[in-house]
Amino acid sequence: SSDVCSSDLVLLNRGQFITGFIRAYGTFAHPNPYAFYLLIILALAMNLFLYQRKKSIRLGLSGLIVAGALCILVSFSRAAWFSLLLIIFFLAFFRQRKLFWVFIVVVLAFGLLSPIRSRFYDLSTSFNSLAYRLSIWEGGMKHLSRYPIIGQGLGSFKSIDVLGELAHNDYLRVFFELGLLGLLIYISLSVTLLVRLVHLLHARLSEYTYSVAVAAFSVAVVFIAASVINNLLFRPVLQWYFWALMAAALKGGRLEETPP
To answer: pTM value?
Structure first.
């Protein structure tokens, strides 16, 4: 699997060397989208683990959760680390409040692990990934005034960056390429999705459908928030998995809400 292969690459010192760290990237071109793909899998696996009663399936899900969490760890994606903590928080809040102890333990473990601390110390250097993003955003903002309403067209953001970099901010990229109209549509879609998922969480659902709904809500919040500093919207593989989960949750809820 890509999980095993990516961990093997890091252990054998053959991962991608980015910002001073050897980072797992699986079958993706970069560690960040790989980590967010794993977050979709983990959110669903953790929720289904709480639903499932069959020991053999729970054992399989346990292995998947451990392997996925390990691969997110060695991806060295700070946004994915925070997102994983948020998914665990939602799991405890919506499913089992006693899991808040797990959340606290994971937070403490993250704070004690030396590689994780080193990854955050990286932000204190003179030039780091955050400073790099800010420079990209500044360059993009300078060209926004050309076509603020309709934008400058798909793929145009890379053309204004000296190194041909992506925006590392989906909202800025949508605003730049699709204009104010495109940004309003994108924000409206995100808000509508969250509203429907919140409504779904308050509906009378079976335990299985509720598990999928919690996973979908967790992933939606994570993706919408992380899009501020990442390139997620224009990653086709991520979007396929993302919207497949959203569709499964919303359709499942609608079928159960529909009177026989």
So the answer is: 0.85
